[in-house]
Amino acid sequence: MASIDSMNELFVDELRDIYDAEKRLTKAIPKLAKKASNDDLRSALEEHLQETEGQISRLEQAFEHLGERAKGKPCAGMKGILEEGDEHVGEDYEDDDLRDAVIIGSAQRVEHYEIAAYGTAIAHARLLQQDDIVQLLEESLEEEKAADAKLSQIAESVVNIEAADQSEESEEKTGPARSRQATSRQRSTAASSSKARVSSSRAKSARRR
Ligand code: FE
Ligand code: ZN
Ligand code: FE
Questions:
Q1: How far apart are CA 114 and CA 183, in angstroms?
Q2: Potential cystine with 164: which of 24, 149, 151, 196 (Cβ 3.0-4.6 Å)?
Q3: Which CATH class is domain 7-158?
Q4: Which ligand is nearest to the CA of 20?
Q5: pLDDT digits over 95-139, tens only?
Q6: Contact by Cβ (8 Å): 121, 137
Q7: How far apart are alpha carbons 183 and 191 in whole angstroms?
């Protein structure tokens, strides 16, 4: 392996790593979107795929600024994160919401890894006084942060544990004689989790009356 003997070379190497990571994502994100059941989650992933394509073209502009060929260098980190995500998302889930929760978790690991990579690259671009490239990378960093925040927001609506817990509580007090175990076993199906939400809101209105 050739040695890296300047900050500039190190920086180009970092950009090649990110370039490879982003390219992998253009293949991985559609697969995740296809497996998502929640409409908001699917459209957030599809939207981020568009942004990812824009990020690739920003990186190509950065290479051009530097007079370097746009070329990826295999990013082992992203490769691993995507393999792990594939494995987790491919498990058997009784409830689509549970798979969505796993998809969100995998996507957020991706975003955090990218946020770290762009953060370092921006610091190095500043050191090299590559102001145009700082600007380009900052635009992409903001998109990664926004994608992460959006996923956090969707996560709250995908699996509503609070509603399920409330319903368990009210069933213990007033509901049919059913063991706690039976209730939690039931909670792991899609039908029962929506039932849980409904019964929870019924419980609330009952309390109000
Ligand atoms: Fe990205
Ligand atoms: Zn990497
Ligand atoms: Fe991203």
A1: 40
A2: 196
A3: mainly alpha
A4: 2
A5: 999 999 999 999 999 999 999 999 999 999 999 999 999 999 999
A6: yes
A7: 13
CA of 29 to the centre of ligand 3 (A): 9
Q: What is the DSSP letter of 179?
A: -
- Which pLDDT tens digit goes with each residue over 178-187? 444 444 434 4
The identity of residue 135, as a single letter, is: Q
**d(CA 127, ligand 1 centre) in Å:** 22
pLDDT class for 163, splitting at 50, 70, 90? low
Nearest ligand, CA 58: 1
**Do 42 and 33 form a contact (C-beta atoms < 8 A)?**
yes
CA torsion sign for 25, 28, 34, 38 is negative
Residue pair 7/128 in contact by the 8 Å Cβ criterion? yes
Tens digits of residue pLDDT in 48-92: 999 999 999 999 999 999 999 999 999 999 999 999 999 999 999
Centre of ligand 1 from the C-alpha of residue 73, in Å: 16
Measured distance CA(191)–CA(200) in Å, rounded: 14
Mean pLDDT throughout 9-29?
98
Residue 90: both structure tokens together:
């491919």
Indicate which ligand has the atom closest to the C-alpha of 150: 3
Q: Rounded distance, CA 74 to CA 202, Å?
A: 53
- Return the domain boundaries, the chain: 7-158, 161-208
Q: Which ligand sits closest to the CA of 108?
A: 3
